[in-house]
Amino acid sequence: MEELRSALEDHMNQMVDLVQNLSSELRSGLRPAYDNFMGFFHAIDWKEPWLMGLLAFHFVLLIIALLSRKNTNFQMCLFLLALAGVYLAERLNKVLSDNWKRFATQNYFDPSGLFLSVLWSGPLLVIAIIILVNTLFNLCYMIVRWKRAELRHRARLSRNKQD
Fold first, then answer.
1. Could you tell me which residue, 140 or 42, shows the higher pLDDT?
2. Structure pTM?
């Protein structure tokens, strides 16, 4: 019995060591990503009017997507427009990097397009995913309604045949 207890304690100690090592590796591995994000966040002047307008645009688009969840045709148009916005992000980045002095205090539009990817394409993709998930739920609901109607129809036909 004592051997079993010591084996279990050894096993538990090994598990504790593994969990502690894993958590320390995760903390040290996520720290550079967190530092990069915070540096990116603090480098942006969030009080610029065009940035406030961009954030308001995404917020209004999200509200429209949520309020129009019952209108599938409108949602599909909104979905395609969001994806078109993502598709045109590279060209938009080029145009904005050429003309940034007209509306911004600093050039946010790097050649790799990181800024525009985060603040333009990212929210558009999130909205597109919300629309896609909503559409899938609507399709599942329609399939269930269709199958119920089919079963009711078959039940009526079988009742009519029995009469």
1. 140
2. 0.74
